Amino acid sequence: MKLTTAVLIAGAAVSLTTALASAARLGQSARHQAEQNDAIVTRNQLDWLDRLSTNPDLAKLWAPEDMDVEEYMQLLNANQLLCALGRRDRLGFVRDGQLPLYASLVMSSDVCRRYWDRFGILRAQETQGDERAKRFTEVLDQAAKSHQKERPAAV
To answer: What is the DSSP string of the chain?
Structure first.
């Protein structure tokens, strides 16, 4: 092999390696930006839920017409808990097999089941196109149904 051919091949290899490393870095940067955006949106949502669930005057502006403001505030507080659990799941802090346990614990609360009865369908509609969110919502729905079956026996 001639020296010039070897130099060209080595140069091409270096260029290819640099391009691959740059592409990997861009991909990593894009994922990091998406995670940061998700964290900001989640924080905004949790802050909003906190304000609504603790301020009756503000909650009154947003409560469904057929719902008492106090009930709405309680349901928003349950939603806050579900949002926090969903965030932990999206970040990967909920290991496989743990989600059904956490969902069962959450749905053992009457206020969480009341929230799910009222807004669970809306949450399911919000998952369109997001398989992880869809799985999360299905697990919560199953836990809510399991606890509803147990409720009559406990009365």
So the answer is: --HHHHHHHHHHHHHHHHHHHHHHHHHHHHHHHHHHHHHHHHHHHHHHHHHHHH-HHHHHHHS-TTS-HHHHHHHHHHHHHHHHHHHHHHTT-S-TTHHHHHHHHHHTSHHHHHHHHHHHHHHHHHTTT-HHHHHHHHHHHHHHHHHHHHHHHH-
